[in-house]
Amino acid sequence: MLLAELPSAVLVVNKDYVLEALNPAAEDLLGGSEQALIGKELARFFYPLTHLLKLIDLAFETGQIVREFDMSLSSGRG
């Protein structure tokens, strides 16, 4: 899979913000295997989630890929 070769984390989510696919860099970011993470909601991993959800909503509304953004995320794991 092409996503596996990318050095940046790639998360594929549905309109309910549930993970449907991810690459190895995203596994490292989220701290688990793809099998363990698929089906989990993003809110479980990121706080605050507001800015990330706005970007996801923008992608769904416009049908365009969000390629670049300026945002810092921190995991709820401290």
Protein model, in words:
It is a single chain. The protein has 78 residues and is of the alpha+beta class. It has 3 helices and 2 strands. A two-stranded antiparallel sheet has the order 1-2. A hairpin with a 5-residue loop joins strand 1 (11-13) and strand 2 (19-22). The termini are far apart. The mean pLDDT is 82.
List keywords for this structure.
78 residues; 31% helix; two-stranded antiparallel sheet; alpha+beta; single chain
What is the structure about, briefly put?
31% of the residues lie in helices and 9% in strands. With 78 residues, it is of the alpha+beta class.
Category by helix and strand content: alpha+beta
The radius of gyration is 12 Å
Describe the sheet with the most strands: 2 strands, antiparallel
| Percent range for β-strand residues | 5-15%
Order of helices and strands: EEHHH
Mean pLDDT: 82
Query: How are the strands of the largest sheet arranged?
Result: 1-2
| Oligomeric state of shown chains | single chain
Helix content: 25-40%
Uncertain ranges: none
Give the terminus-to-terminus CA distance. 32 Å
Q: What is the helix tally?
A: 3
Tally of strands: 2
Shape designation: globular
